[in-house]
Design brief:
The chain has about 375 residues and is α/β, with parallel strands linked by helices. The protein contains 14 helices and seven strands. It has a seven-stranded mixed β-sheet with strand order 3-2-1-4-6-5-7.
Length: about 375
Amino acid sequence: MHDPKGISAKGEAAGAARAAPELTIVVPTFKEAANIPLVVERLRAALAGIEWEAIFVDDDSPDGTAAEVRRIGETDARIRCIRRIRRRGLAGACIEGMLASQAPYVAVMDADLQHDEKVLVGMLAKIRQGDLDLIVASRYLSGPADAGFGRTRARISAQATLLAGKLLRVCLSDPMSGFFMIRRDVFETLAPKLSSQGFKILLDVVATGGGRLRTAEIPYVFSKRMHGASKLDTQVALDYAALLLAKATNDFISIRFLTFCLIGISGVGIHMLALFTADELFDMDFTNAQITATLLAITSNYALNNSITYSDLRLRGWQFVLGWIKFTIICGFGAVSNIGVAHWIYSSNGKWPLAGLIGAVISVFWNFMVSAIFVWRLR
């Protein structure tokens, strides 16, 4: 006869609840398909005997990174994938992955094979003891990181570290590290105050902690990248500068607004260069030269803002062209408001520096607020 108890026992065994892993490794990715199998293989070898999972957070890579993660995840439940559509940025990816974890400890590492996964075991052993909130894998405790960086990038990283220490009083040898482990309950308390923009999530975490985090560092050797290309570019530099300014003002001003302003400063340089070229090389009359320079500066600002400030809302194709038209019109109204307000203030007190400054500030706020709503549809 059919044994319902036997069936029931098998069903209960098959559907038995499974405890959350002890450790979640969050791996943000963009165009890292070739590295995924290697990362998983190394994690399996390094973390034998530990209950772990890896969450790959992919920014909709065109090379099939997410599909590769899912392929491996079909036969290994420890491998999970979060695919983000129309959202970009390493910090945001890390935050989403860490908040998706159920583990008591969460680590962040890159998919480029430059982080030594074997160090995770030592990090976990330290944080298990209960007297630390954050463990940072430092590239500098074992000496210079030239091997994985190259000398130029190593110098840039060293200068960025020095700047972070002076402005934010961050006492770490490597606050730029993308390789760290944190207690998830501690991260949960910090998460609402973190920026989803930019690339330096650790610096944001430490600065937001305000010196309250119990922190330690552990050395590792930074390896050379095996596949793909480094993401270090102008966008990273601007994001870093904006993050420093935002944290130095205790988040009084948003990182997105600061990035917008930094790009605006670069637009002044474009404007003056274009004006010089039109006047000196092409002998163009000043009015036409000024119009040309203004349009080039606006176009440069628009392209950079679309790529950097609003990288998570980036416009493409015809939407990019339509966005440029809207941005140009908005900046035109901003210029009119600048002139109008400055003229009114100057006629009232005759102080042109004050009038010019207030007019410029109003123009910047107008351009930022209105373009955010009508060009990039920021909510």
